[in-house]
From TrEMBL:
PANTHER family: ADENYLATE CYCLASE, TERMINAL-DIFFERENTIATION SPECIFIC, ADENYLATE CYCLASE, TERMINAL-DIFFERENTIATION SPECIFIC-RELATED. One of its GO terms (biological process) is intracellular signal transduction. SUPFAM superfamilies: Nucleotide cyclase (SSF55073). The keyword Membrane applies. Residues 491-623 form the Guanylate cyclase domain. The chain crosses the membrane at residues 12-33, 376-394, 401-421, 427-445. This is Adenylate cyclase. It comes from Reinekea forsetii. InterPro entries: A/G_cyclase (IPR001054), Adenylyl/Guanylyl_Cyclase_3/4 (IPR050697), CHASE2 (IPR007890), Nucleotide_cyclase (IPR029787). Its EC number is 4.6.1.1. It comes from the Bacteria. Keywords: Lyase, Membrane, Transmembrane, Transmembrane helix. One of its GO terms (molecular function) is adenylate cyclase activity.
Amino acid sequence: MPVLTLLKRHALRGTVILISVFITLSLASYHLLQAQSDYNSFIKRLDYLFYDWRYNLLLDDERFPRANETIIIVDIDEKSLAEEGRWPWPRDKIALMVENLAAAGAVVIGFDILMTEPQINPTRSLQQQARLKGRPDLAEQLEGFILATEYDAILAKSFSRTDIVLSFLFQDDATIKVGQLPEPIYQLTADQPARLIAIRANGFTANVPILQQAATSAGFIVPSIDGDGVLRSAPMVQLYQQQLYPSLSLAMGMAYLVIEQTDINIRPFSTDYDMISKFNFVDQQIYTDFKARVLVPYLGPRGQFPYVSASDIVHNSFDPEPFDNALVLVGTSSVGLADLRSTPVGTQYPGVEVHANLLNGLLQGTFPVEIVESNTITALILLLLGLIFTYYSSRLGPFQLTLATIALLIGLVSFNLYFWFEQNISLPLASSFLLALALGTLHLLEGFLSERKAKRHVTSVFGQYVPSAHISHMLAEPARYGFAGETRQMTVLFSDIRFFTTISENLTATQVKDLLNRYFTPITEAIFNHQGTIDKYVGDMVMAFWGAPLDDAQHPLHALESAIEMLTILDRLNPQLLALGYPEIRVGIGINTGPMDVGDMGSSFRRAYTVLGDSVNLGSRLENLTKFYGIDILVGPETQKQCSTWTFRFIDKIQVRGKNDSVDVYEPLAPIDQLPSHWPAELALFDRAYQAYLAQEWDRATILFTELLFQSTQAALYGVYLQRIESLRDQLLPPDWDGTFLHTI
């Protein structure tokens, strides 16, 4: 190869690498420095398109479920305007609507309309004209009609029939302060407003005081419009004068569930600022972005909720049955009243139905989530993709590079869709897509220009990011796996920190959190290392199971090996904890094998993939009994039977509370080929002692258990038997007594 050609080829390669690095760093920097506040760049607009495409992909009733509560929209539509006249209508007509809806059984009525100015009493106007015309007698005669035409008071009185939630607007202009605001739902401390990142208001346009005072509450109706004019998100709360006020949907949900104040979680966003990360709505956690916004959980195109014409409500010519215990939103779909929005599921979408979707999401507890860390995660993905793609590109020929680019694009989209469909998490896609496309094209051009041919195949870059073996297998063969309930032979493990209540009493809340994090992380890794599935964490307790969703023919052995590794981890962890000033941690572990019901279980509000059944309950009881016997691990009979490569010490024949049958329980000692030399003799002596115990030869059993007590390094069990023998000596045992001990805990 001529030297000049070689130099040109290296120069081309160096230039391509520099361009690749520049593109990668530029896109990563965008997400770290600019994306959080960007609303209108090319990348952001492309992300908007990806979001809308992804949102409508496979959108059905299961994607974002409907709440059990009925939500109905009373529509000030074209028909209503034609029959009742142009908007605004007289307040007595709205009062008639309230009366009819309340009579039909509506429990909450929310108004997506403003009533900011008092309605002039026509009788008082006539009185004024009569006095000006020199007719004081006529003015006096009209006095008796004043109350009948005080339409604001009439409307306010109708509000007593049911819960009424009004709406208001926040303004940027501090000079605008119209009407009366409702009570706030959260009072910030004196230093929080300056640090809090939230949508702030300086003024407001609210309802006349007589109506607001009669209403249950009110919520703002300010939309959150993206840079392309589409309504994808909405703030749940806004900040005004150190207080947080709710949106219309949140105010309606709180009125329906009789909540006066909501529990808001405020956490640090940076060293100088805080953010609202979530708020607790009854038993549900609603996550928000850094400005307390949620992505609107649209159920589908316009018309997902029943619409009833407002004129039919006025004339009481509607079917009242659907309104019984319903939440009603009064709004408009009329083009002339300008409350139509562009949304991911369609243009000309009534704003009142946006509130209905938000209210449904609150009651159901299902929202798409845009996590605060999404831009940081995306930046890291971009850096990894850019560096890996640049490194491997020189080893691929044009055809291989094309396949790799296509595979990468498919992988990125699949990765993004996984989080969307499985976790309801929205991650940016445009920059990753552009990076893969740009680098693929750049390196493909380099390959053609330099006429290089590949020397080896490269695995898909996306394979670097497969989260776990479980998910990898499930994605590879989705038809084999599901969340439908079924009964399987499985193994369950319960692990609990001994005396955790005492430990936590001597630590601060921050120290307890730190201690548990240091403990749970390696313990969880041990479970995952042995193909286990985490069921749940409850305080300091860990529950895991083996045999689902993936089949595992050796699930008892894998569970046992996981438990042993957990104890080994604690031996390494405890010196670290002591160095930090924390107490040592000891755990009790219960393992049981047997038939269990596994599947997606729970309520319409919250579900979980979990296991149930008697075998599960026994596993929990075994964990609890480890303290009684003074051992670390206690396993059921089926686990012991299926772990044939291990040596076990028989512990006891027990009967747990609520069960009639007794079971043998065991302690795992070591693999058969690794059993310490002292154990065979000790196990043989224990067997003799236990046989004497079964034969009710109390003196002989006492001698043998006492010998074990002084010989063994793990003697707590033998002390249990010695105490039990003293209790049994004076009892008259039944003829069929088989040594079963009844545990009442």
